[in-house]
Write a structure and sequence with these properties.
Largest sheet: 4 strands, mixed
Strand content: 25-35%
Radius of gyration: 16 Å
Structural class: alpha+beta
Amino acid sequence: MSERKFINKFYGLILKEKELGKHGWLRKVYKNKNLSTKEFQDIWSEWWKGILPPRTEVDIILAFEDLMEILDKALIGCIEIEYFSIKDIGKKNFYEGLQQILAFSIFDFDGLCFWHVFSPEIEENVINN
């Protein structure tokens, strides 16, 4: 499985949970959003004002209703996913993606998540090491 396929599968699971109403506070879910497109400009302008920051792509964006409305009406977080297949072990840098999640901080997300996801083919002792 590739990183893109994993993200698509994860996105589908989130939408399924949302449709079932298990998490009534989850309002919107976006995937693979290039933050320099017209489409993201529409998303951005719905929640914030001003011009877009520099180009980058977010794997998953989650918009939750802020029930307490401390700052505004939404809590928006992003998830950067680095998928490691069996081929990637020993080749892919463990810190790959860290720069990207740090760059997301300029967008003033309420939360940033950086996930390492490992293929089921990789033995647990390899992951733990």
